[in-house]
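residues and backbone:
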Amino acid sequence: MRAVIQRVNRASVSVSGEITGSIDRGLCLLIGITHEDTADDLKYIVDKTLNMRIFPEESGDSGFDQSVIDIEGGLLLVSQFTLYASTRKGRRPGFTDAARPEQAEPMFNELVDSFRMNSGLRVQTGVFGASMTVDIENAGPVTIILDSEERNTPRKG
């Protein structure tokens, strides 16, 4: 599972001009699911995201001191199979590493539920599989990529 996490002042997602989810200060997560993902991958993404200290203290405008839970921020989750694009051959990306919708949608819904249960925060989403417009006001900017596959990889140096 991959998550592109952006610290935001505000973010929203809309489908056909209708806003389906919006948050103020918090995190916008673009979520990619592969066919090998398990409950352990989901747990890793939820735990890392909720506890990662990427917000400044109220007294300062820089630093990485507080988590999204500490600031009582919002979470906007948007499914994005293109995070598993392969560009090794040709000019058109391939998506064979992305989970098929019938596998990815239940896992995405489980991820959303897990964020809700484990955070107590406002959790908003887009519409799975829809063509969406995501509007993000990135704060910092701070953008972090999590890949659950890397949790078992030894650190370099």
Q: What stands out?
A: The longest helix spans residues 101-119. The chain has one domain: 2-152. The longest strand covers residues 133-147.
